[in-house]
Amino acid sequence: MRTVMRGGVYRALTVVAALTLAPVAAHADAAPGPAEGRLIGFGALTAVKEHLRALQAVADIYHGTRAAGTRGHDASRDYVAAKLRAAGYQVTVQPFDFPFYQERSTALMERVAPAHKVYTPTPPDGSGLGDFATMSYSGRGDVIAALQNVDLVLPPGPTPSTSTSGCEAADFAGFTPGKIALLQRGTCTFLVKARNAQAAGAVAAIIFNEGQPGRTATPQGNLGEPVSIPVVGASFAVGQELATGATVHLKTDTISEVRTTSNVIADSPWGDPNKVVMSGAHLDSVLEGPGINDNGSGSAALLAVAEALGKIPTRNRLRFAWWSAEELGLLGSKFYVEHLTPARRSRIKLYLNYDMIASPNYALKIYDGDDSDATGEPAGPPGSAEIEKLFESYYDLLHQGHNGTDFDGRSDYGPFIAAGIASGGLFTGGEGIKTAQEAALFGGTAGQPYDACYHKACDTTTNINDRALALNTGAIAAAALVYAFKPVLPGPAAAAEPAAETAAITAIADTGAELRGRIKR
Ligand SMILES: [Zn+2]
Fold this sequence. Notes:
The chain is built from 14 helices and 14 strands. By secondary structure, the chain is of the alpha/beta class. Helix 2 (34-61) packs across helix 12 (466-485).
């Protein structure tokens, strides 16, 4: 195992040198020399592994997580920022507020009158759907109170959203403060209903499903913003039962509040600031685990590559980003892109994303920039197809199979694509299942998840495939270096000068042919 791994490392990093040195030499203002190639070749993977151990150590200290809004993330951020400053980058720690939510223990709901009855809860991880479930961003509380029905439609109307229960403040005209509001799904958001209930003096809110076919199960709702009273969803059956009148004991154990977290952005001092080549990885984990593959892998590889490149004068400006709150909906990258002025945004010529690059049962997936797979989302902005081609060339040179992965919006390229910036990147698979075809290409086990520890406590340093990590660290370094020196970057301008693009790809291919003999010795 170890020997195979070292072979993979050697080959991947040899190709980095080949990819980067040859094609840039003809055009670059200041091309990287053999010394720089060696710097990356011999230093990067050792550094990646060291960074992964550091992130694991952070999680071990801070209760097993590096999630946005926790001390584990703050420590990860400080670690990355310090390494980048030492490597010569201008580092910006960009703070932003976001709604933090955690359910600390399983909720309780019981009817204390007319007759005692305990309802089955839904555990915090959402598994085993019960009679009721705490809504995300529910407040914390422990109350015993009589219920008061709010504008219910029972039996339910013929179509969804016949009910407007709790959507208007007027629904609470006769509401007695201190009671629990019993609400029905329909017409407006759970947040509107919960906020109106809170404003009317309710000590908690139970929102039951509306009752039409397909709308009877316990809703696992997300309020989206912190609410201070306990808010749970309940099945239609429970709602119907409680609507006849009851006193209920409801207890939720949550943290639901606005917290501050930050992105880390690092600019190289070199190159044309009007031609920015940007690469990013999310640094936050989920609350349930240390997030070493997701996404310590992309974060550590990007950091090692940035460190290796910090002292190299380049033609274009390199910028690296470590996003926070990706796991809560790409919040950090969205904040960054939305707060760019039009001028600053137009300087970013391309964005490369690295999220989960060393899954234990990996597939080597390249974001489908040209929509050649014809699935899911359409092609990326102009230039995305060329980025995909560059990564394909890299793997091809190694005689290493690869396949495509859709721009399905599940990582931080999303806001860049929305802003029309050429995008691409790598992914080795998450909770999805490896196909037989992929097992033939990459080894591993078909019919099993790419990462069985996805979003779990077992996503530790043992949840890393070293071969995938080595190959993809090489790919990240190669892409950064190729674009750092390319006179014409992918995108609309490049389309006007196809000859320059073709020349660069041909140079890579030529180098590959020459290299092939050496690899196979
Ligand atoms: Zn991720």
